[in-house]
Amino acid sequence: MTPKEYKYTQEHEWICPESKNKGKVGLTDYAQSQLGDVVFLDLPAPGTQVEQGKKMGEVESVKAVSDIFAPVSGQVLEINQTAIDEPGLVNQDPYGAGWLVRLEFSKPSELGVLMDSEEYDKFVAELSEEGSE
Amino acid sequence: MIELLKKTPLNKVHHELRARMADFAGWQLPLWYTSILEEHRAVRSGAGIFDVSDMGRVWITGGKAGAFLDRLLAKRAGRLEVGSSQLCLLCLEDGGILDDLWAYRVGTDRYLIVWNAGDIEQKLGWLQRWAGSDPDIVIQDKTADTVMVAVQGPAVCQLQNLKGVSHLPRFGHTRTRIGDVEVLAARTGYTGEDGFEIIADAANGLHLWESFMKQGVKPCGLGARDSLRLEAGMLLYGQDMDKSTNPFEAGLGWLLEMDNGEFIGKNALLEIKRQGVKRKHVGFQMTGQGIARSGYKIVECGQEVGKVTSGGYAPTLDVNIGFGYVPIELATIGTDIEIMIRNKPVAAEIVNRQFYKRGAQNDPQRI
Fold it and tell me: What is the ipTM of this complex?
């Protein structure tokens, strides 16, 4: 389910490196399932500098507001206008059509601290266990 | 941490349906089963079922039950015909709202009130205080012994389960059977759609719920309960009104019977009416990008003028809407205001509070 070639954060963002220093960012399937129906996205304008672990935008579901954190530092190259117009894509296809921004990484080495898909799956499994107590 | 959340008789079925559960006024209730939007739309277009067992159910009986309620409620329940019901306000002596509740006359000297889940002890204490030790006023809270579901949506009367009560007028109620379960069925609800609220013994809850699900009724959670009532322009106690708000500023003057009899708070309310209110509860629609949430500031010309009391996305209208209190000078349809959304002012316009009206052509661009 979690794409193998992506990297993941503890805040449930994913990043899909397309080249050495560019890649798309989105929210994981777990994130969208926790949020419920996404109805609004507030994304940083292209050109904005973002910093790893710092807030770069917001996602609103019917029920809640949540911050979106930058998985790595860099510059916003592009935002997904289709998802802004149709935020439900984040629920329907979180790893594909529901992507949020494309970044140019300023410190590609930062990718090294992120989780791979196996680590992330384990991380989520542990969270779900806690949640069911 | 020790959690002492109360569970409704339907708690097991919510877990079996893998609902996302949430804490609401001390109760563990489903927030959604599949999706708030899907559940909202099911109620607007078909039929949905809600577990509303968190609502308090209190029977008031005895020879003076009617007179007692007339003294407590701002609209006389003692005048209701047996088999009918009405929305009422329970006011404090200073005119503040202690709760809004539904009063049903179930017999000559028998009434049922259904009120919100919050502050139960305080509200029961309030009733006891005014009832005193009068043997002709008997107050019985049967919330824990009963279950209550709301079945709402334009298709409810086509359900096999409800064919037998489809003759009931709006706000009417009757004792009847659904399948082999004895119930009290009332043509009431809080979604802006046609529908019924059904009360039965707690032990029959599961059976009742399943019989509706078998007929294709969609289970709906708190999320849709909130978005439906907001879209239909209905206030939520604890957010849109509370002890510090009076019925006039809440826009609930129509629930007061000022020219008839005495009730607690009447004198204070007459004085408030004479002086006029300084602020008013209004509806607004976002014209800028963003969703207003309860607690956000309302600003006008850079000055804070009030607070959002309810807000969110309106699925049927596809716009962002909300309620809030603004100074009376601004409380006019068409007035431009701004909502502070994460430190940014976002444009909104005051509109008719009933955003969605059943059967009306709802133009998503303009309400």
Answer: 0.85
